[in-house]
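Field reference: sequence -> structure
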Amino acid sequence: MKKILKRSLYGIIITLLLVIIFLTVSTKNAVRANMMAHGVSPISAFKCNPKYAPKTSKSLEIPVYYVPEKFAYKDRTTGVHTSTFAIRTYLGVFHIAVTADQYYG
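Structure field:
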C-alpha cells in the first residue's frame, strides 16, 4: 500500500513539474501561467493571445507583453488592473512573467 501511495505521489509531483516547465518555456505561456496564478480561469487565460509591445519594451529595456483589455484582470491582493507583463528569462530558455506595473514610475 505504501509503495502505491509513494508512486502516486511521485507521479503527481513529476506531472506538476512538467506542466510548470511547459507553461514557462514560451513567453506567451508564461503570461498565461501568471494570469492563472492570479485567479483568472484557465479557459480565459488560454483564449487570450498575449502580444509583444515593442515600444514599451524599448522604453523599459525589458521584454513586455500585453493582453487585450477583454482579458485583463484586477489583482486581488493589490487591486491593480493588470494587462501588461514584463518577461524575465532564466537560463536562456525559461520565461517568467511578472506584472509590468512595478517598472512604470
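Note: The chain has four helices and six strands.
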